[in-house]
Design brief:
The structure is a single chain. By secondary structure, the chain is an alpha/beta fold. It has one domain: 3-Layer(aba) Sandwich (Glutaredoxin). It is built from 5 helices and 9 strands; from the N terminus they run βββααβαβαββββα. Strands 5-4-3-8-9 form a 5-stranded mixed sheet. Strands 1-2 form a two-stranded antiparallel ribbon. The protein has a two-stranded antiparallel ribbon with strand order 6-7.
């Protein structure tokens, strides 16, 4: 299955950096950004985490939740969040269930395969509204915030 615009987003049940189970239904009534990133504590992923943390209040004020997802485990996410004081949740998908079900692409870099940096915008009813593929980490949070505000209008 691949996530399809206009349809319900993939149901998931993943643990955040504190080991708390998190599901799609936890965000009912809110807009949700699920941003997929390749790996904890790498340059682009750190930029994204810091940017979403810095703009968290703006997202909160617009009724938008933000979660990051990678194939790293809970312990790795915890270390990553603590190292950079992130205030957003990072969901662990070590079995790559959500990543595969949502149809996230993969790329190779220096002989290692990584999940592509992808963002999904989900509306308060749980429907996928927009997908951003092969995202550049610089300034992407601004694009998301502006686009979602436009969808809310």
């Amino acid at each position: 299955m691949t996530a399809e615009t206009g349809k319900r987003f993939v149901d998931f049940n993943l643990q955040n950096q504190d080991g708390k189970a998190t599901t799609l239904d936890d965000f009912a009534g809110k807009w949700l950004v699920v941003y997929v990133y390749p790996k904890d504590d790498t340059p682009g992923c750190t930029i994204q985490g810091k940017s979403f943390t810095a703009s968290k209040q703006e997202f909160d004020d617009a009724n938008i939740a933000v979660v990051g997802v990678s194939a790293d485990d809970v312990a790795s996410h915890k270390d990553f969040c603590n190292k950079f004081s992130f205030t957003i949740d990072l969901l662990a998908d070590p079995n790559q269930e959500l990543l595969r079900a949502a149809g996230v692409g993969q790329s190779e870099y220096k002989g290692t395969t990584y999940w592509d940096r992808t963002s999904f915008v989900i509306d308060p009813e749980g429907k996928l509204r927009k997908v951003y593929e092969k995202v550049s980490p610089e300034g992407h949070e601004r694009v998301l915030l502006d686009d979602i505000k436009g969808m809310q209008a």
